[in-house]
Amino acid sequence: MTTNPTSRDYNKASVLDVVLTHAPLTRNDLIELTGLSKATVSRAVEELRADGFVVDGGVDEVTGRGRRSTYLDLPGTTGHVVGISFGVQTTGVLVTDLRGREIQHMTVPTADHQEVADAARWLVDLIAQAAESAQGPLRQIVVAVPGRVRNGTEIFGPAESMKIFAGPGLHRAIEDLVEAPVLLDSDANASLLGVLTNDATITNAALFSVSTILNFASCTDHALARGSTPAFGDIGVLSSGVGGEILDELLSTRGLLRFARKRGLDLERVEDLWEESHDEATRAEVLEAFTTAIVTAVSVVAVTLDPESVYFVGRLRPLVDEVLPEVRGRLDRSLPTVPEIRTVPHLIGISTAQGAVYACLTMAHERLREAVLGARHQSRSAAEQSAPAF
């Protein structure tokens, strides 16, 4: 029968947590970060070494008198994770070890698929290419998509060109092809997770992904908010405050390009709006509508979610940078308290994949911790420890 975890199990799990998040490090580092005694840490390290989760990773450089310390590291054989940004135009795949250290990344144009199964096979082939040099088992896959996602499996409101992926089909198709857990998430959630991982001081925040579609994410107490219905996060359907336009029609590349063309601007792509010269009056009209839409969007989240910070990422970020001073001025005049508004540098295909990797690591680490705590078994004939089923 399975016994309850002991204090020894919890100590071992604590040491594993620190190794997974801080390796390479010394035993002294482990003692300091865990608060455990030298003997307890040494015992846990040797057990983790036997399990294959700790190896010696070199020695430190000591100047003057003193004893050099051996670094402990996480071996590549413990496994790897894969984060994917499955965008309309670009797909990025990032493979890291369980410490979050990059093994390989690749960015390719997104292939046009007419069948969900074909798209799943294409993504799995990309994973195989990117993970060719990875060691150990594939522990987790997270695919970030331009749409809203419920329960990690169902896609709602994807970009127009990705309508075939609405529903749970893509999740099922990928899971059928790989021997690893698969989770879907929105590109906005992945981007916000990247922001949260890089700044642990953030508590309440909102993020707008202004790319092919307008997508939205928020967090409370440093945890991503996830709704239970398909309507959650669908902020793009709200009125923009400009005529009859909704927010998605002015804060997405597709919608803003159409709006600008209707106003007479000859644009081949939306980037031409800020990279090329145009009639000043017409361009000013488009920027006025864009500015109003941003003010509306920020106002909505400011009065409902009370975020400390609001972030903008995506292809329209350069245009957001241009109008931010006016946006802040209008919000100062209309709101008693204005959240800090920032744009986030965004590497197409990779930044979102990094957020997906952070999600992978959180889940993989938690499963390993649970394996440590559930690894102690007692047979009817004798009480013996068995090696954790890592």
Q: How would you portray this structure in words?
A:
With 390 residues, this protein is of the alpha/beta class. Helix content is 40%, strand content 19%. The chain has helices at 7-22, 27-34, 38-51, 116-130, 169-175, 187-198, 247-250, 253-262, 272-275, 280-305, 317-334, 351-373, and strands at residues 55-59, 70-73, 80-86, 90-97, 102-109, 138-145, 148-150, 154-156, 182-186, 205-210, 214-220, 223-224, 309-313, 340-343. The protein has a 5-stranded mixed sheet with strand order 5-4-3-6-9. It has a 5-stranded mixed sheet with strand order 12-11-10-13-14, sandwiched between helices. The chain has a two-stranded antiparallel sheet with strand order 1-2. Helix 11 links the parallel strand 13 and strand 14. It is globular. Mean pLDDT is 90; it is low at 377-389.
Question: What is this entry, summarized?
Answer:
The chain has 390 residues and is an alpha/beta fold.
Oligomer: single chain
Radius of gyration: 24 Å
| Average of per-residue pLDDT values | 90
- H and E string: HHHEEEEEHEEEHEHEEEHHHHEHEH
Q: Note poorly predicted spans.
A: 377-389
- Beta-strand content estimate: 15-25%
Assign a percent range to the helix content.
40-55%
Descriptors:
about 400 residues; 14 strands; 5-stranded mixed β-sheet; single chain; alpha/beta; disordered C terminus; about 40% helix
